[in-house]
Amino acid sequence: MKISILGTVANDTLIFRRDLISKLVAAGHIVSVFCVDYTDQTRDQIRSLGAMPIDYGLSRAGLNPLADLLTIFQLRRLLNELRPDVVLSCFVKPSIYGSIAARLACVPRRLAMLEGLGFVFTDTPSGPSAKQRFLRKTQVFLYRLALPCIDTIIFLNPDDPVDLLERNNLKAKHVEVLGGIGVDLKQFAYSEPPVEPVRFIFIARLLAEKGVFEYIEAVKRVKSLHPAAEFVVLGGIDEANPGGLKQADLQKLLDTGLIIYPGYVSNVSDWISASSVFVLPSYREGVPRSTQEALAIGRAVITTDVPGCRETVIEGVNGFLVPKWDADALADKMIYFIENPAAIKKMGHESHRLAVERFDAEKVNARLMEIMGLSELR
Known about the structure:
Elements: E1 2-6, H1 10-26, E2 30-35, H2 40-48, E3 52-55, H3 65-82, E4 86-90, H4 92-104, E5 109-114, H5 130-146, E6 152-155, H6 159-166, E7 175-177, E8 199-203, H7 212-225, E9 230-234, H8 247-255, H9 268-273, E10 277-280, H10 289-297, E11 300-304, E12 319-322, H11 327-339, H12 341-358, H13 361-371, H14 374-377
Parallel strand pairs: 1-2, 1-4, 2-3, 4-5, 5-6, 6-7, 8-9, 8-10, 10-11, 11-12
């Protein structure tokens, strides 16, 4: 079959779709991968998987209706040339505009996968801003236009279809909950967690909605009581985002020795392996990839009791769920692990077991291919 995958950022597509692309190609399908920012390197990486890179234009954050309309017609033209049997659109804008374009191009089977609802549907301590409320209404309107073009819409957690579809009276033809995109259990292999010293690791973009400020506040409290404990932060800074951690504030944290921040790293698995406990106090997720990686490596998890995050923890078994926005509750659980190091290894084993059971990329991609209808189309 001819299959087109519509993504956005090439590096993200390589991280999140690599295993699926490889599995599709291995099954004999002809795969094209659409991205908006290909470089020679990322094109070569897609080709090395046996797929064909396709460039297209899309403003990921823009609200220009003319530009979005042009994107739809550009995608329709490209799809008309490729004549795919199946289109899988990933992330918000491709799911909306790509699905409309796929219907206009008469693609026989059209699917969309939302790996989270994004900041627009994320609650914040101060409540939604006027801009956020406007964007939410705009997205709901666009979903109302796109959903009739989508044969199956795929979510990662059971809360997202409730918050998007049911609460906004949106009708979808067919809904599936995948439960996480999965990780390669060989690449993220289990290792015994270190406990001397106890080291916590946070992996996410350094934005408010990822819980970076709650993490920092918790670190300050825990460090004052247990100065030997270590705290790692991995993630990019977004100075343009008003809710982001600023470079000057990050530098102060580094100068005082509160955190370890190596900047960009390509060996994330090594950093997880060198840590004792994974921490993600996010406000909302699809099902976070970084947490799935930590589970596979065998790390206890502290995360928030919110959509997407709660799917990665069985309370008291492989970690703890804390209320969103609550730095004190986060600090209490960090202190628990410092004072009970045996729990780090015990819960780490349970995390690995959960990864094998729920987040094995082989199993997840087999199910995703079944949802895509490829088993019956071959």
